[in-house]
Amino acid sequence: MSNTEREEVLSKARAAKDVAPVVAQLSTPRKNEILQRAAENLITHTDDILAANQQDIEAGRERGMSDSLIDRLTLDAARVEGIADGLRQVAGLQDPVGEILQGRTMDNGIQMKQVRVPLGVMGMVYEARPNVTVDAFGLALKSGNVPLLRGSKSARNSNTKLVELLQDTLAEFDLPREVVQLLPCETHDSVQDLITARGLVDLVIPRGGAKLIEAVVTGATVPAIETGTGNCHFYIDASADMDKAIDMVINGKTRRTSVCNSTECVLIDAALDDATKLRIVRALQDADVTVHGDVDELEGFGATDVVQATEEDWREESLSMDICAKVVDGVDGAIAHIAEFTTGHTEGIAAQDADVLVKFGNEVDAAAVMLNASTAFTDGEVYGMGAEIGISTQKLHARGPMALPELTSSKWVLQGTGHVRP
Fold it and tell me: N or C: which end of the chain has fewer CB within 10 A?
């Protein structure tokens, strides 16, 4: 990266740090008013957004971008409306800033309280999805933070137009345009400049594929929150209602293959008879899903047209109409397989045996565990959080959908009357 480009990243980070105190002090009504107005502006300029997005789609196809990434990149009028709705939902959520988490009066009379406060400057590194640009802005503003957005080159035109509209909204309220900024995306060096900007950036959140997340988490010198690639499993126990179990696994796989809560592996209880095992596999194939696995194992109960799974198939999300299938020795076998291959995102089970459900829920280590529900339900909006910044798969500070409270820190405020410590 040239010195000029590096300076652009650092200059924007300094500007973000300068305006952070202004954002931190915005009142809740003011923040909500800005969010509502931003939503209106997005809808009003839908045609402009879609025109910019079309440029990105055409460029992506010329570069041979995969269908799953094209899906993540693509906007239409309904998706723009959904993005705007996300801002409206955030406006309707409780403001976490200023919430008193705990407090008491010390024996010496000093009053103490722990209060939620903004994190400050929040760096976002993400791929393809232009909706993240707006989600990050909305959640950052409501939680009193300033976002620095490093989107991918593949969505450059879309992101530029969206940020321009958001900055225009801020200007309507006499706020600096630097309250949201888009960083250069021509080379990967700009990511490194962002994630090593100690003293300027308070937190960085990567959102994208496994390689992007790994690069950010291992290369950052500022605090980073790992958000989730989703190698999500769904176990079908012998006690399951089979009609519902098949509906859940197909929903988790086919509802939208390009998202991180998509089911990537179905685990089948060995105690099921061969006809039922075959029914599960054929139901997936009838839904146009390609089934991968141990061919000898799957053909052993009559499955056909299956693909030999590779090590990568078991360990990584496909983000496509592909799924792995494996026969396991009951719930213990499912838990053991998940423990080896999980990314810690979402794991699901279909069972009617209460003991099996309790065991799975207690022993599976993931940000979300679905008991008789599709993996597709891991979503901040579904959880009632509004737009989310991502699904955290790490265990410090935040885990699962990251919404407003997860984008704050806290500070202790102690008030005395001239107290001195003996």
Answer: C
Long-range pairs, 270-275, Cβ under 8 A, ≥24: 270/327, 270/328, 270/329, 270/330, 270/333, 271/238, 271/330, 272/236, 272/238, 274/300, 274/301, 274/302
> How many whole angstroms separate alpha carbon 343 and alpha carbon 332?
18
294 secondary structure, DSSP code: -
CA distance 133 to 118: 19
Torsion of CA 361, 365, 368, 371, to 10 degrees: -20
Higher pLDDT, 211 or 343: 343
Angle between helix axes 28-44 and 156-172 (nearest 10 degrees) is: 130
Q: Evaluate whether 232 touches 348 at the Cβ level (below 8 Å).
A: yes
- Cβ-based neighbours of 204, under 8 Å, separated by 6 or more: 122, 123, 124, 125, 194, 195, 216, 220, 222, 223, 224, 225
Q: In the β-sheet with 111-118, what is the strand arrangement from edge to edge?
A: 100-105, 111-118, 408-415
Mean pLDDT on 321-347? 97
What is the pLDDT at residue 219? Answer: 94
pLDDT at 384: 76
Per-residue pLDDT averaged across 186-206, rounded? 95
Torsion of CA 363, 364, 370, 371, to 10 degrees: -30
How far, in Å, are 94, 109, 143, 162, 169 from residue 31 at the CA level? 11, 36, 9, 18, 12
pLDDT of residue 67: 86
> Are 307 and 291 a contacting pair, CB within 8 Å?
yes
Q: Token digits for 365?
A: 């280590």
Q: If you average pLDDT over residues 163-183, what whole number do you get? A: 98
Alpha helices in 199-241 (DSSP H): 210-219
Half-sphere exposure of 308 (CA within 13 A, CB side): 1
Contact 201, 148 (CB under 8 A): yes
Structure tokens at 209: 């594929």
Return all residues near 133 (Cβ < 8 A) that are at least 6 apart. Answer: 149, 151, 155, 158, 159, 162, 163, 166, 182
Q: What is the rounded CA–CA span in Å between residue 283 and residue 298?
A: 14
Q: Using the Cα atoms of residue 207, residue 210, residue 211 and residue 213 in order, give the sign of their dihedral.
A: positive
Q: What are the structure tokens assigned to 140, written together?
A: 């950052």
What gap in Å lies between CA 392 and CA 401, rounded to an integer?
Answer: 6
